[in-house]
Q: What sequence folds into this?
């Protein structure tokens, strides 16, 4: 009997160690820290959108101002809310994107825009009138993602867009991302962790507008009506594997049949399980040694 407890204990302890190591390693692989992150957990309408990792908090505009969302039912300590926009309200932040970057956000909307990046139903943009080194990331006239910018393309100055293939304006939560490589001009669109489309737009530092708008635009953008949650800006190109890992392991839960954005670390449950297995295994080994001694 003691030998059986000893064997079971060793198996349990090893399983716990393996599980803790696997979860911890996965987390370390997906450890890129955003330069700015707006979780939109504010409790009052019109409050500044707090940048949880930097100092780039957003100023609210509109009457009424952006509203804390009732769409997320305050059930996750890591993500108690999102922000609701009505098409005329928005936030302004300092534009920190210029060369290589990644933008990710959770959205829920039916809004559609035009077929150029300055007239999309934009999630975030820093546009200027006429040609300029600017950008816009939002939804086009087909309800699909769109990213575009002004820059040097094929030897000349030009505006260009990359259009997505998946409809995201369907009143369902989606995580949407875009990466932009300033060396090659390539940008890649992602929907729910999967690559959706790619294309090439002009290169150059996109600093024409020092201010970026969230859920609005400065050059004829279409209204964005809906919800935005957990908007993150990275000053690097995230690999597709990391974007997929973020989506799959950390950023979506389903509650009451509704997909909700969740930026909490859902791997905590796996870590707890690993710890329980380790403790149970250690206990079984100790019991086996006690039985042998007695």
A:
């Amino acid at each position: 009997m003691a030998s059986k407890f000893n064997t079971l204990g060793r198996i349990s302890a090893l399983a716990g160690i393996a599980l803790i190591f696997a979860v911890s390693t996965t987390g370390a692989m997906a450890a890129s820290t955003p330069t700015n992150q707006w979780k939109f957990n504010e409790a009052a309408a019109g409050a500044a959108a707090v940048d949880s990792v930097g100092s780039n908090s957003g100023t609210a505009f509109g009457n009424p101002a952006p509203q804390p969302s009732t769409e997320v039912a305050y059930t996750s300590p890591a993500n108690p809310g999102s922000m609701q926009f009505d098409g005329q309200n928005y936030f302004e932040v300092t534009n920190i994107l210029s060369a290589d970057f990644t933008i990710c956000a959770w959205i829920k909307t039916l809004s559609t825009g035009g077929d150029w990046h300055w007239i999309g139903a934009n999630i975030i943009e820093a546009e200027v009138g006429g040609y300029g080194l600017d950008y816009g990331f939002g939804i086009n006239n087909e309800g699909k993602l769109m990213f575009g910018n002004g820059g040097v393309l094929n030897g000349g100055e030009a505006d260009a867009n990359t259009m997505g293939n998946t409809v995201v304006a369907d009143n369902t939560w989606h995580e949407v991302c875009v990466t932009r490589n300033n060396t090659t001009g390539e940008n890649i669109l992602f929907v729910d962790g999967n690559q959706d489309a790619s294309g090439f737009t002009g290169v150059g530092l996109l600093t024409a507008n020092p201010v970026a708008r969230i859920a609005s635009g400065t050059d004829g953008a279409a209204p964005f009506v809906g919800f935005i949650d957990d908007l993150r800006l990275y000053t690097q190109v995230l690999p597709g594997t990391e974007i997929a890992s973020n989506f799959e392991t950390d950023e979506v839960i389903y509650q009451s049949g509704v997909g909700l954005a969740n930026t909490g670390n859902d791997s905590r449950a796996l870590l707890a399980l690993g710890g329980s297995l380790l403790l149970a295994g250690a206990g079984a080994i100790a019991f086996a040694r006690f039985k042998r001694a007695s």
